[in-house]
Queue: 2 jobs
Job 1
Amino acid sequence: MIKLTVNGTPREIAADAGTPLLWALRDELGLTGTKFGCGVASCGACTVLLDGAPVRSCQIFVGDIDGTEVTTIEGAQDSAAQAIRAAWGELEVPQCGYCQSGQIISAASLLRDTPKPTDDDIDAAMEGNLCRCATYARIRKAIHRASEIMEG
């Protein structure tokens, strides 16, 4: 059994140690907000927080992360995540929406570490999060807006 804290709750996963975290989250725990995109950590759709840092869950094996803390889109509820969600809606960021859980996790992580990011900060933090609909300009604008929301 692999023991993890997922979205603040201690969980045990009965998956093979070589199972990617993505599939353990989706198939074992029913947390389907984390999406499969490419399977090779190139698109960012599967991004989750592992001990507070954004990672691509398709390339992290559950046997390597026993005892860690995982936050998925379902559990991302802090002020940064709430500000990102508010800005996303206000500026109508999503189109198809498929990449959005990974985008939101990465953007909220950026704002936790860098409350007033520059365009270069945003570009670096969001690198590798692909959007088929090419809403990159709206994503950047929404991250700046979320920063303003967090300031009050």
Job 2
Amino acid sequence: MSIREDLEIAKKALHGKNLTLAIVKESKLLFESKAHGVSAFLEALEKLGPKMKDAAVADKVVGKAVALLCIYAGIRAVYAPNLSLKAKQVLERNAVHIKWKTLVDKILDASGTDICPFEKAAMEISNPAEAYEKLKALSKRLSKEGKT
């Protein structure tokens, strides 16, 4: 089984089941979610941990925050209907296979009026482990405030 085949399975699951996130490894769907934002990817990391290494991810929206989490998790291929320029740069630098439909300048928050808070947090970070810790803390804080 190739990583490209896993990516195709993840992509079909994403669109076919109307998901926001699908993670596939060795032809098996390891994780699926309909939750919006970075929190779904963080949940996958909590549940799967090292099992995500060498998997393929299909995520509705991939910005720099998710790109850094992909590197942290050891993801080898990413499909995103919406991919940010910064995410593309991070994934390319780390030799991750990428497919996308639309390349965007920035990822906006749910209201569409400002940059996504996770993207703001990831802006100055280049270390994937540091990104994971900061994004996890932000997710906890936002869910306490009822914003996720």
